[in-house]
Amino acid sequence: MTLSLGWLSALAVGVFSAHVLQKLCFPYFWKDLFFLLKVISYGVKLEVFKLRSSVSTVLDRFIQNAQRFPDKPFVIYEGSVHTYRDIDRRSNRLSNVFLDHLKLKKGDCVALLMSNEPDFLCVWFGLAKVGCSVAFLNTNIKSKSLLHCFNCCAAKTLIIGSDLLEGLDGTLTTLLDDNIQVWAMKSQVEHTQVHTLLDKLEAASDKPVPAVLRATTSLKSPTLYIFTSGTTGLPKAAVITHLQSLKGAAGFWAFGGTEDDVIYIPLPLYHSAASLIGIGGTVHLGATCILKKKFSASQFWNDCRKHNVTIFQYIGELCRYLCNQPTTDLDKVHKVRMGVGNGLRQDVWREFQSRFGSIQMCEVYGSTEGNLCFMNHIGRIGTVGRSNFFYRLLFKYDLVKYDMMKDEPVKDEYGFCQRVRRGETGLLLSKVSATSPFFGYAGSKQLTEKKLMRNVFVKGDAYFNTGDLMAEDLDGFICFRDRVGDTFRWKGENVATTEVTETLMLVEFIQEVNVYGVEIPGHEGRAGMAAMIIRPGHKFDGKTLFEHATRDLPAYARPLFVRLQEVMEMTSTFKQQKFQLVQSGFNPSTISDPLYALDYQQKSYIPLTDLIYQSIIAGERKL
Questions:
Q1: Within 13 Å of residue 65, how many CA atoms lie on the same side as its CB?
Q2: What's the pLDDT tens digit per position in 572-582?
Q3: Which has more confidence, 48 or 6?
Q4: How far, in Å, CA of 92 to CA of 103, rounded?
């Protein structure tokens, strides 16, 4: 008996010691393990689809949900509730119209230009039910870009929302001349060559079309085309296969979402965040989503309280806009437990959680077309994900040295890239393989090839170039540093715009700031410049900004110039526009916004006059 007790005591001590050791040396072991097991189990499920040559798509899951719980709310939009059965039947009607009137066939590509509304989903699902791929068009693009999008994906049919038809203007004639048939979600239109859908919808059957039309045997079959924002050129059509669609749909589930969640989607459906992760994720869970036509910072928390929202989607500066709203006693009165998105800066992250409660912020890193995804399942502030030994076995990626001056990766004497050490910043590359394929862009092999780097470490290998500078710390946490194009070099040092932005945002009178580099004749690299919006009720204070910049930023990273703006130009996904700011430079004679220059003698940012500008251009003023 004594011997048995001794063994039990030794075992208990051993287990306790192992537990303490694990906590000290491997504090994230169990969280990593359980998260990876979820990821692997889902990956196995996708592999089974390959073996069976029969894919259960996101649409199939939606149809199953409509049969399992037909009366459950699927989409709540502007106070109206649309159940799973409602959306299923309306999309059935549309699919019958598509077959009978539009004469669409399996394999056709159809362009969809529509604002956020339930009919976006009905048209999308209706097209998918007849086996068509859908090209989501950005509602903000005009003329040349719009025509370019049709050429990319070879769409010959356009379905347009009722509120967007008038905005086509002269482009409509060009579309019709190109033999593109235009169908509007209206009962009647003035233009004789534009067809109407709503009148035909009323008479259509809500019976499902044959399932064989939507069936697919390959995960690699294209189902969507989602366009990049095209901020520095024409949009590119990223090919979205069923594989990518299914991966995106599992995002909420991977973070712990359930069918009881209510998901708030304020982002545009024509981008992957809202469509693949938001709608796809709602379908995967069998949950309910609150769909907003447009994001409204003033309505956000009232909506969350009204609909008992538990998960919301964010991107870019959305959380910053919420933090800029006036404080109220109800700031922490809500049921939101999780936010899923990307681009959340450290300072905003801390302020958001401090003000609105301990909401789990789940950062997701990955471009629409990319073959790599990081997910911050731990919740470490300021990181986009976490890696470990097992993760690296599943997903092959590397961080390589990058030369800012030459704007290219650093190569060794054999012409191969060099990996950075832990903690160092490097260009993120993701290996292209059978398990991590890159499907590229529609209509341009050249653009697809441009995103690939070949012969990176050995001859014959291929990597997807993310264009992002990242760092991985000793604990395996991965941090986003900057875009390659956003980082600039000044006085022999690399300036990361995101880091300067986070520092300047601590200044009380600054509401928004956009940091970029401008060229100065006779100087290497680019000098730092910051476009700012001043908080309501505050004034620009050059001395305070000077004190802050000189105290918290190294000399090379301090903005030499400041530009005050009324409105900050943003993309449709809330990303700051830098291109036009960089192009316009810092010339006070061509810029109407107030400009300021860093002045060490006066220890302030002083008005940038023509005289000061000329002295800088002439090389007379020390920078």
A1: 25
A2: 556 677 878 88
A3: 48
A4: 15
Q: How far are the Cα atoms of 1, 218, 232 from residue 580, in angstroms, in the given order? A: 82, 42, 9
Q: Does the pLDDT of residue 115 top 50, yes or no?
A: yes
Q: Does domain 488-617 have CATH number 3.40.640.10?
A: no
DSSP-based three-state secondary structure for 146: helix
pLDDT at position 14 is: 53
Q: What is the pTM of this model?
A: 0.81
Tell me 209's DSSP state. P
- Kindly report the CATH class assigned to 385-483: mainly beta
SS3 label, residue 538: coil
**Positive/negative CA dihedral, 350, 355, 360, 364:** negative
Q: Cα Rg for the chain, rounded, in angstroms?
A: 27
Give 490's contacts (C-beta < 8 A, 6+ positions apart): 517, 525, 526, 527, 528, 556, 557
With b for 16 or more beta-carbon neighbours within 10 A and e for fewer, the 369-406 pattern comes to: bbbbbbbbbbbbebbbbbbeeebeeebbbbbbbbebee
Calculate mean pLDDT across residues 191-201.
Answer: 92
CA distance 616 to 621: 5
What kind and span of H or E run contains 4? helix 2-25
pLDDT, one tens digit per residue, over 476-516 is 999 988 778 677 778 756 687 877 888 899 999 999 999 99
Pick the CATH number of 84-241 from 2.40.240.50, 3.40.50.300, 3.50.50.60, 3.40.50.980: 3.40.50.980
Percent of the chain with pLDDT over 90: 61
